[in-house]
Amino acid sequence: WSEAARSGQPLVVGVCGPQGSGKSTLALLLARLLNARGLRTANLSIDDLYLPRAARERLARDVHPLLRTRGVPGTHDPTLGLTVLDALARTGPTPLPRFDKAADDRAPQADWPIFEGPADVVLLEGWCVGARPQPSADLLSPINALEAAEDPDGVWRAFANDALAGPYHPLFARLDRLVLLTAPDFATVRAWRGEQEAKLRARLAKEGRDAGRTMDDAALDRFLAHYQRLTEWIAHDLANNADVAVRLDAHRWPVETRGL
């Protein structure tokens, strides 16, 4: 942190991990620990940078229907992320974007929390934070039934890959450090994400909100198929390139670490 402080900029730490791996919990814990040590720490999720539903509908119409579903690179607003990072380096209030997953849309700006800057540390967490594009040859063959049936010509996966090489690159280039969590396999990610969906349904029921937009098992399987390619690529590509890499077992216990 002292190096970043001398530059007058916050230290930006990325926390990357598959869905359900505990990356959001880790980021919250790190923020509490750092704040307790007197370091003003802002916590931002790449999920909160998702494009509004109307913008994804336009992408679905103009580029590929699979872009209607939030998730892959190309369905976020990395420019918004850069704007927030720049604002967090300055003294004064910075609204932190929020995305309402139950509504599948960006929350009204009036509901965004305010961070009083400047920040000393910014934590940027998300399933594809720090991801690098795949080699073009890796895109030729579909990785699952969704890609085979609905992206046979590779337009969707090429669009996502190009987004990593293009508009996402300046955002991820701002990372000073990257922490990576990996799962044993994609089946474990499916189990973890199922737990999250059950918790979301329970929370909505407790709040008296409509749980109609939550996913049953079939919908969840389809949803996760959108993420499989990059989840597996990130685990392979960043295992030796992240500053800290933690391999988890099926119970989310760390079984191997590198960089600590």
What does this structure look like?
Helices cover 40% and strands 17% of the residues. It has 260 residues and is of the alpha/beta class. The chain has a single domain (2-258), classed as 3-Layer(aba) Sandwich (Rossmann fold), CATH 3.40.50. Strand 4 and strand 5 form a beta hairpin. The mean pLDDT is 94. InterPro entries: P-loop_NTPase.
Classified by CATH, the class is Alpha Beta
Helices and strands, in N-to-C order?
HEHEHHEEEEEHHHEHHHEE
- What is the level-2 CATH architecture name? 3-Layer(aba) Sandwich
**CATH homologous superfamily caption:** P-loop containing nucleotide triphosphate hydrolases
What's the overall geometry? Answer: globular
Assembly annotation: single chain
The amount of beta strand, in percent, is 15-25%
Protein name: Kinase
GO molecular function: kinase activity
Organism: Caulobacter vibrioides (Caulobacter crescentus)
Keywords: Kinase, Transferase
Topology readout:
Layout: H1 2-7, E1 11-16, H2 23-36, E2 41-45, H3 53-62, H4 78-88, E3 92-95, E4 99-100, E5 105-106, E6 114-117, E7 121-126, H5 145-150, H6 155-165, H7 168-172, E8 177-182, H8 186-206, H9 217-225, H10 228-238, E9 244-248, E10 254-258
Parallel strand pairs: 1-7, 1-8, 2-7, 8-9
Antiparallel strand pairs: 3-6, 4-5, 9-10
Helix pairs in contact: 8-9
